[in-house]
Amino acid sequence: GPWLPFDAGSILVVPPRQAHRVGEAGPVAGSVRAEDRCSLLGDGLVTFTAGNGSRDVLLLCGAISASYATALELFDLLREPLVKDVSADPAAGHAFALMRGEVSRPGLGTQAMTELLMKQCLVALLRARLEHGDGSGLSAALHHPRLVRAVLAVLEDPAGRHSVASLATVAGMSRASFADHFSRAFPYGPMDFVQKVRLRIAARLLATTVLPVKVIAQSVGYGGPAALARAFRASYGIDPVGYRRAGIDDPREPRGPGQG
Length: 260
Prior knowledge:
Strand content: 5-15%
Low-confidence stretches: 250-260
Number of helices: 11
Helix content: 40-55%
Order of helices and strands: EHEEEEEHHHHHHHHHH
Mean pLDDT: 78
Structural class: mainly alpha
Strand order of the largest sheet: 1-6
Number of strands: 6
């Protein structure tokens, strides 16, 4: 895609698993290999120096997830990179300044503190984009007032008896119109979304609680452990008990229909 300009105090958000480059839009003066220019900064952080070592651009980089109700991974809806100047936003600007201070003097807890501050900046960015709309896939999905009502109905009551017809009613749309708008905003259909929400919440409960699988199954809308196990195995490649025993802290994204 086209080069996107940024300046000091900017946040750049790249869609998950999308290749990207940061640099000048003009001819490249040179390139270096990361393994040749990386060194340990402290507390698990790594520093990478490109160019001639002049400190003209400082980038704080990380892979951060931002989910709603532990079920909807917001950045999975992002289609194009976002660039936002947060220097004028009091909350984000303050967090940004604290991040710079942390990495300039790394010590015990710097990695955890930096991650929290970066997430605070991203939440401020998301809030601003959703309030003002930006035409991206993210806003198209969540800035649509009618779709939002249906999305929240699933997130707030994952065990509800949801169907395309019932969600269309919540959205105040016809069944056909709702299904069409939903599929345009999301990379999957309404019932695929319901299952993704249920499985992500089930995965989180398996990883962070000692609730019986039967209770978890019923709490997210499956009739019992067998039904949850079938859906869980199809999406995660492992049954709920095995997933819990593996001690996975962060649930992986469930596979969509037809994915291996």
